[in-house]
Amino acid sequence: MTTIAPLTGTADNAVEQLLDRAFGPDRHRRTAYLIRQGTAAIPHLSFAALDRDMLIGTIQCWPVQLVRDDGGSIPLVMVGPIAVEPTRQGEGIGQRLTHHAIRCAEQSDDAAAMMLIGDPEYYGRFFGFDATATARWRAPGPVEQRRLLARGTTPLAAGMLAPRLSTPA
User: Fold this and answer.
1) What pTM, to 2 d.p., does this model score?
2) Which sign does the torsion angle of CA 64, 68, 74, 78 carry?
3) Which residues pair with 68 in a beta bridge?
4) What is the per-residue pLDDT across 117-130, written as a single tens digit (0 to 9) for each?
């Protein structure tokens, strides 16, 4: 039986090893890593899928922002990576994790503007993400514009995606 638990209770090395198996060890070169560079995953929106005590999936959400060309910024929650143990893919584990993270975001008011880089047909059909608001967004690395997706209250603005770093008090 698969259970979903907060990712904070999972060893960091187990998560990293799963991400390597799911995406390959060169995953750190991807644009998504540049967008969230220097941030920490949002604990109340990051989860582990466990089969007994074995880690079989993860989802992490990150504080990012759209730095608007006309000034100011829009806080966003970046969804992903969503990783599932390769031998367990196709069982709906990633869908369960994603639905769970979105529900938790909605309950904590973090769902106002969520974004990810992914397949628009999949993420649109199952989770309501689309590229309507992202047409004039840019990323700090290569990205297919059609794969830059958002959901929630995201204004139509031009700008660059960047990490949302907390400022010291």
Assistant:
1) 0.93
2) negative
3) 159
4) 999 999 999 999 99
